[in-house]
Write a structure and sequence with these properties.
With 210 residues, the protein is an all-alpha fold. Keywords: Membrane, Transmembrane, Transmembrane helix.
Length: 210
């Protein structure tokens, strides 16, 4: 009887130890379901994330280039449309007269030069410089051979032109060449009666001086 009581006490002590007592599986907390990871799927996801990050970093510098390309294309299209409309517009003709030929230009230039030479000759005549007056008269006659037009009648007084004619008669060889006299009369716009009167005066003065 004493042996059986000691055996029962030892059994209860063994059952009451914390390390021996284990709760039943029915009272344990339920475990969460953790899905199994697929290694291939994880590797693909990492590649996708890396590609997205690379695309973000590379697309940021490319935006200005894309904007410039779009602006250039728009500008080219606008220029082509404007150029097409401009070609359709008919502009009026401002210059309808034909251009001057080289001969007409030379004649106009010679006419200006002969006028300048006559003006200088008149100035030397008033300064009583017969030599320079003759030089300018011969220069004016050379330009008149190209221009073939007389001086303007309102440019100088008649007495000044007759004075040039008398100076030419006095300082040229006697008798003066007839063609030179005709050309000088045409240049200085001297009429034939006035020229004959001036020639007679110069010849009479020359005869009196002799």
């Amino acid at each position: 009887m004493m042996l059986r009581a000691s055996t029962v006490c030892a059994t209860w002590r063994h059952c009451l130890k914390p390390s021996v007592f284990k709760p039943s599986s029915t009272f344990a907390a339920p475990k969460r379901h953790q899905p199994r990871r697929n290694p291939a799927r994880c590797q693909a996801g990492s590649h996708l994330s890396l590609f997205a990050a690379a695309s973000r970093s590379s697309s940021i510098p490319g935006l200005p280039l894309l904007a410039v390309a779009i602006a250039a294309a728009a500008g080219l299209w606008l220029w082509q449309s404007f150029k097409g409309r401009l070609l359709q517009i008919k502009l009026p003709l401002f210059y309808t007269e034909p251009e001057e030929s080289a001969e007409e230009y030379e004649q106009a230039l010679a006419s200006t030069r002969q006028a300048v030479a006559v003006l200088k000759a008149i100035g030397f005549m008033h300064a009583c410089d017969a030599a320079r007056t003759m030089v300018e008269l011969r220069r004016a006659m050379q330009q008149n051979a190209i221009a073939r037009v007389p001086l303007r009648q309102q440019a100088h007084e008649t007495q000044e032109l007759l004075g040039l004619y008398r100076t030419y008669l006095r300082n040229s060889e006697m008798p003066a060449p007839l063609d030179s006299l005709r050309q000088l009369q045409h240049l200085l716009t001297i009429q034939r009666p006035e020229a004959a009167k001036a020639e007679q005066e110069v010849m009479s003065q020359a005869a009196f001086s002799i």
